[in-house]
User: What shape does this take?
Amino acid sequence: MSNELNTTHMMSGNSYSLEQIKSLAPSVFTTDKAPHLTDKYVQTPTSRVVEDLMSMGWQVTKAQEVKARKGKGFQKHMVVFRNPEIMIKGANGDDSFPQILLTNSHDGKAAFNFRVGIFRLVCSNGLVISDADFNNVSIRHTNYTFESLQTKINEVIAKLPGLVQKINLFKSTTLTESQMADFATKAAALRNKQTVNIMDLLRADREQDNGNDLWVVFNRIQEKVISGGYGYGRKNRKARSVKNFQQDIKLNEQLFELAEAYL
Assistant: This one.
């Protein structure tokens, strides 16, 4: 049941090069500020932060940007990082990697924002943590230095053992049938106003997700809410996956807060 933090395991899967990131999210490499901004605005391209994190051992595993008709090149974007030397070791091969989700824009509306997430190898599923110990960390463009980034990332790493403890607390919390149904109903309502087939949300698709402890129930529900495939409405239509990364992050944070209510 217990998890442990492993700092020597090598990550499986591919990481993106700078050229690949540029093809996925060109706004990451924007060096000019948006035309409406004054000379007082200090432009720090996200690519600088990406390269600094890479130099610290973090690899890019995902990059997206918001589709934009206006302000193209300056829109909000996200880059996801994992460190191949930091892994949360789980039972029966249910290993996971802490993630750092970096969001930013070059239109003067956002600072560099860092969130903590978890990537589970068994389902290629990413969770975003919403917890008092892992509040979002921001660095303003004007205050950005490699040293400020290093300080913030070290703060996150220092808190990872607490994340392992939280996962173990989820695993040691058993839910009743009615609690699981209640969880699924409330989780579905975060995305759908119509009636949802909660049995679709509670169904385990892999051996590691069988059971009724809070951790596996949360993972089953979270994966379905984000990835879709469950039935909803009178015609039992199949929900589509969430494509917008801003909606993805918001739903993830809401689901984590919902799960904590059952501790």
Remarks:
- The first strand starts at residue 4 and ends at 6.
